[in-house]
Amino acid sequence: MGVEERKRPLRHEGTSGLAVLISDYIQARGLAAGTHLSAQELAEEFNASRTPVSRALRLLHSQGAVIHHENRGYFVADVPATARKLTQGEPAFDEISATYMAIAKDRLAARIPASVTETYLKSRYNLSKSQLNVLLSRIASEGWIERRTGYGWQFKEIMVTPEALAQTLRLRQAVEPASLLEPGYRLDRVVAAQCREVELEMLKGGIETMSAEALFARGVRFHECLVSGGQNPFFLETIRRVNRIRRLLTETATRDRRRFRQHCLEHLELLDLLEQERNEEASIVLRHHLENVEKSYDQIRDILVVPT
User: Fold this and answer.
1) Residue 116 forms beta bridges with which residues?
2) Are 191 and 252 within one domain?
3) Beta-carbon neighbour count of residue 217 at 10 Å?
4) Beta strands 145-147; 153-155: pairing state
5) Domain for residue 60, yes or no?
6) Which of 24, 64, 153, 282 has its CA 20 to 30 A from that of 82?
7) Residue 285, domain CATH
């Protein structure tokens, strides 16, 4: 096994997976443009060495999500640049992402136990130690696994029942429309334009061609952009936490793509209303939109199981 692991190319040990984690880290903590990103602190946060962290930062720099200053390091990019990464492009779906989805599907279907060891996960999914570290860091940050006292890891029974899914949808119906009514609400024009471009690309064929993860992420990012216009960090962090957990349902929730055309049209209507500063109307439309999402999720509730 040791020889096998040494033969694995380092680029498959989680560069794009780490980039996703760092991007989520920036968003979850609401780091302002210009905030310094310490490679050492990130390495400690994700239990990785500095080398793959540096590769991930270079990847984010190439995508415009972070900026680099010679001899000073990496910094969070400005709002428009960050917004581009929130609304455009397909997330890297490398070996790490594929394994992440396999673990999520296996847990939802109760094919793996609630309590696991790192040895078990490495063996079942053919992972190296560094790959496992990236995966566990990502899953832990999303709130559906935690380290057990003493030894091993424990999956949480969160977002694996129809009731839990319904509860998160009701929370979104309460928070997202309210965010549009916050005093001083302002959706950045650049962000709005980029959101619109993504929705139009979806209608031109993206619905059929995007991966399940990219399709799901596009909806998540659209709604987070809308909520961010309220300038209320409590609203935004609440929605981000729910969305991190909802990723468990990425493939299941995107299985039937027929409903996404209507979702795109409703997203465009919301952008029109917000650009005209008709926020009260937009809030009502957003609530109806989320109610429609809840109805469309009815079809997958029977698929969810309660793990034992």
Assistant:
1) 153
2) yes
3) 21
4) antiparallel
5) yes
6) 282
7) 1.20.120.530
Boundary residue ending a domain (87, 103, 125): 87
Amino acid identity of 121? L
- Give the pLDDT of the chain (308 residues) as one tens digit per residue: 333 333 333 333 457 778 877 876 776 565 777 888 999 888 887 777 888 889 889 988 887 888 999 889 999 886 444 444 444 444 444 567 778 888 988 887 889 999 999 999 999 999 888 778 878 887 887 778 899 987 899 998 765 566 777 788 899 999 999 999 999 999 988 889 888 988 998 999 988 888 777 777 788 889 999 999 999 989 988 998 788 777 666 556 666 788 889 999 999 999 999 999 999 999 999 999 998 877 766 665 555 544 44
**Quick check: pTM over 0.90?**
no
Q: Is 243 helix (H, G, I), strand (E, B) or coil?
A: helix
Angle at 300 between CA 298 and CA 303, to 5 degrees: 130
Q: Which residue has the tokens 């709005």?
A: 192
Residue 176 and residue 72 in one domain: no
Place of tokens 């500095």: 50
Edge-to-edge strands, sheet with 115-116: 115-116, 153-155, 145-147
In the chain, the number of structural domains is 3
Cβ–Cβ < 8 Å for 165, 159: yes
- CATH code: domain of residue 101: 1.10.10.10
